[in-house]
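Usage example:
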Amino acid sequence: DTAVSQTPKYLVTQMGNDKSIKCEQNLGHDTMYWYKQDSKKFLKIMFSYNNKELIINETVPNRFSPKSPDKAHLNLHINSLELGDSAVYFCASSLALAGEETQYFGPGTRLLVL
Amino acid sequence: QKEVEQDPGPLSVPEGAIVSLNCTYSNSAFQYFMWYRQYSRKGPELLMYTYSSGNKEDGRFTAQVDKSSKYISLFIRDSQPSDSATYLCAMGVGDYKLSFGAGTTVTVRA
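Running the assembly step on the lines above writes:
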């Protein structure tokens, strides 16, 4: 049974399009995250939600809008996609907000913008 | 300068060798230190977690933290082909945001 799942796994799209990535966790965790991993494997946090509330919003363009309809879901909508948005996007969750809590990662969504 | 520096490798070793991975950091406030392992086309998974200076051992894995030098290490003894992965160090300071290193890609040759 998958703990953190993401859809789609692969996304190929044209510049300027709008796309969404969905994330669901069945671990009963309170906190969820979105990370971006670039081609050099560098993993950088984008957003963090705790109990559906936005906690962390790093310097991410406002073309990226997360939405958490409930504690188990955190979706990411991206408007006006750009070439530089090509990356792997990981969703993660942790039991609580505290930084030392283990984060459980999803399998990633590979986004390629042409 | 990045907050956490990690040599991206790649590192290739024969089976049975000791693998040594390192990260340095600039933020002396970091309190807890983690190592994540990421297999190809998978998400990272927590491997080791330490909260203070010193060594922590778990099977073939040893994590070492030297806060005075702002330096952490991960050692893998008797390395196996199944250890081939990217290893990411991560650290934080009492809030809810981890800072990750760039990851070191390791290949263990059979």
